[in-house]
Design goal:
Oxidized Rhodanese, domain 1; 3 domains; 15 helices; 30% helix
Length: 450
């Protein structure tokens, strides 16, 4: 048996290749498909099947391009008609042979109505379950994509899919999700490399309930949905432009960006951005790019990446992450020496003000405190007078609620999201002060005082 898991950095997405004899099946391929073709060549096998668990919302699928380049058939769910222009529709009455392996789809609705999981059998014994966005390591798929009116219905479907269908396969079955820790598709995915259905049944915090009613009550809630998801949904039924195999991004000059209306996205570290950055640039470091770019920058905007001081691998990760999310208008980069040149010219740069937790505790009564954490993260036991909670994901559309009459202290968990928030505020003409260390630093200070 051949098996390979392909990890997509930036998006924390997993796709899979399984095979036997001279054949390979690919499950949930990412947009840039060269890696699958290369791995199949190395294994001396032919890609013959492409299986999709569901229409993805957070990245563009590579199924159409991979099919065109390999001749493999694409298989999609027959349980929901989304208007796909590609794919043969399949369901639980179908099964597929890959050499001596048997792959059987099972209908696991909840995350979406048509969601399929794929069970890989070794002989007559279920060995692996490719569960898509139904279940994650330590978490489970969201159920709110059909709106609040159908939330309870979809969450009930998810319970049945997990407890009645997946768990009936046996505790020994290896569980292969479509995402790992850091993905926008889960709020609490654990940092692990493997799991079984039995382990998740016993240890997954989201599954520790006594009844279906308790599960539905616990998990029926609406979540924030990034604006770029709408483009992903469209691309993943109608198809998207194929990607080139190399990074295509011109090195631009300062004069270039001054002449054009580009959005400069600063992907350097938080410390580098805070020290000196191009005025009105958006900050989102490479490690949080996939989580927040889709909330701040429109997919059609012409983007310039500021990569001054970064390694080439960091640039590549950011570039491919953005392209996989549908950002196809990356017009260029600002490279080594950009910030230094602006320093010498003494023009076009700003710094982000920061204060430590100790200073914040001394000053917060005179400040407006902007807390950019999600509502479920916010606690009431810290001394936040004059606090306004606007989750970072919503700040761009709600920045008009801020007033510049008081100094604005911006807090999050550690300071990273607060810095992103200050870059959004700066574009709106509002200054913000980052509380370095965030609530973790504040908690430490309060503990020391006790």
């Amino acid at each position: 048996m051949y098996f390979k898991r392909i990890f997509t950095p930036g998006l924390s997405h997993y796709s899979y290749m399984v095979g036997d004899g001279g054949e390979i099946a690919v499950i949930d391929p990412m947009r840039d498909v060269g890696v699958y073709i290369e791995e199949a060549r190395k294994a001396n096998k032919k890609i013959t099947h492409i299986f999709e668990t569901h229409r993805n919302e957070d990245y563009i699928s590579g199924s159409m391009e991979l099919s065109e380049k390999t001749g493999a058939e694409i298989y999609i769910s027959k349980y929901e008609d989304l208007g796909h222009v590609y794919g043969e529709k399949i369901g639980e009455d179908d099964e597929f042979r890959i050499g001596k392996l048997r792959i059987a789809p099972i209908h696991t609705p909840g995350h979406t109505l048509g969601h399929l999981s794929y069970v890989l059998y070794m002989g007559d014994v279920p060995y692996m379950a490719f569960v898509g966005d139904t279940l994650f390591w330590g978490d489970l798929g969201r159920t709110d994509f059909y709106g609040e009116d159908r939330l309870v219905e979809m969450t009930a479907h998810l319970y049945d899919s997990i407890f009645e269908k997946l768990f009936s396969l046996g505790d020994h079955v290896l569980m292969m999700p479509a995402h790992g820790a850091g993905s926008a598709c889960g709020g609490a995915i654990e940092e692990r490399d493997c799991s079984t259905l039995g382990y998740e049944r016993k240890e997954n915090p989201a599954l520790q309930v006594d009844s279906k009613e308790e599960f539905v009550e616990k998990h029926s809630y609406m979540r924030l949905k990034a604006p770029y998801f709408e483009k992903m949904e469209l691309c993943n039924v109608e198809g998207a432009a194929y990607l080139p195999g190399e990074v295509i991004s011109n090195v631009l000059s300062l004069e270039d960006i001054q002449r054009e209306d580009y959005t400069v996205v600063d992907i350097r570290s938080r410390e580098a951005y805070s020290g000196k950055h191009i005025e009105r640039s958006i900050f989102t470091s490479t490690k949080i790019l996939s989580a927040y770019l889709g909330w701040i920058v429109d997919t059609e905007d012409p983007i310039v990446l500021l990569v001054d001081g970064l390694k080439d691998e960091e640039l590549k990760t950011a570039y491919w992450t953005a392209r996989r999310m549908g950002y196809d208008n990356i017009v260029g980069i600002l490279g080594e020496g950009t910030v230094k040149s602006l320093e010498i010219e003494d023009t076009g740069l700003k710094s982000t003000k920061e204060i430590g937790a100790k200073e914040y505790l001394e000053m917060h009564r005179e400040m407006l405190v902007l807390d950019v954490r999600r509502e479920e993260e916010v606690e009431e036991d810290y001394p936040y007078m004059n606090r306004l909670n606007i989750p970072l994901q919503l700040l761009k559309e709600r920045v008009g609620e801020l007033s510049s009459e008081k100094e604005i202290a911006v807090i999050c968990g550690s300071g990273e999201r607060a810095t992103v928030a200050c870059s959004i505020m700066e574009r709106a003409g509002i200054d913000g002060t980052v509380v370095a260390g965030g609530v973790k630093g504040i908690a430490s200070q309060l503990k020391d005082r006790d």
